[in-house]
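hey can u check if this looks right to u? its 263 residues, i copy pasted from the old doc so theres a chance i mangled smth
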Amino acid sequence: MPDTVAEVRPDRTPVVDQVFGHNKAPLDEVLKADFADMQKAIADLLAEAGDLPKKVNSDDDQTAVGRWIVKARAYAKRADEVRQAENKPVLAAQRGINAFFAAMSDPIDKAVKKAQAMADDFVCRKEAEERARAQREAEEARRKAQEAEERAAKAKSAEAAGRAEGKAEALHAAADAAEERALTAAADLTRHRAEGVTSSARATYDWEFTDKDAVYGTLGILGNFIAEAAVVTAINGMVRAQKGRASLPGIRVFPKTVASFRG
């Protein structure tokens, strides 16, 4: 059987030029036409595998199997070399396209990150202020309710006592409402809509390393072979799924309020 690897015609047009050119042809058709010889050579190679001994029982059998394996590896290597060559202009074009658009999107992402940080800071302050205001209103209503109750106790007539007790009851209800508002969700405390954009807060969770050695200690012997980026990705997934219940030695999980916008 021949030992030479099927070569590609040197005069053919690169696939990328054919597929992406003005007279574009279907990729599958181009590949089948240009690499028909290589496909046939590999099909013949695989058919030759059927002639190999069913079981190696001698040095001659071992030689036959080894010779076929060497040839098969050469075919696979050549096919991969051609694949890389065909991909090279495609990947170069992809890199060029990515770089062109990244030059536009990267500055946007950077500016959005800065604006988001300012918005996050504002909703955190607004949430705290709204909760504090509601708590102050509750405390003030309780104080006035107590004063009304004291007036009712000192009232000289049943009518005056009834009025004072009614006022005290209303003030206690107002205090209850204010206390409930102080405990409401961040989104409800901070929601604001203007000019077609709704702004509110969203409660989420974030995390940080406190002891990387402790984190890697949970991975056992495999920790020596896992890149930090992979560990970070895994922890991000855990915190996203488990939220405040997420727990791992060497990290701190904490609640975080971020601004949310909807058009």
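Residues 18 and 24 are 6 Å apart (CA to CA).
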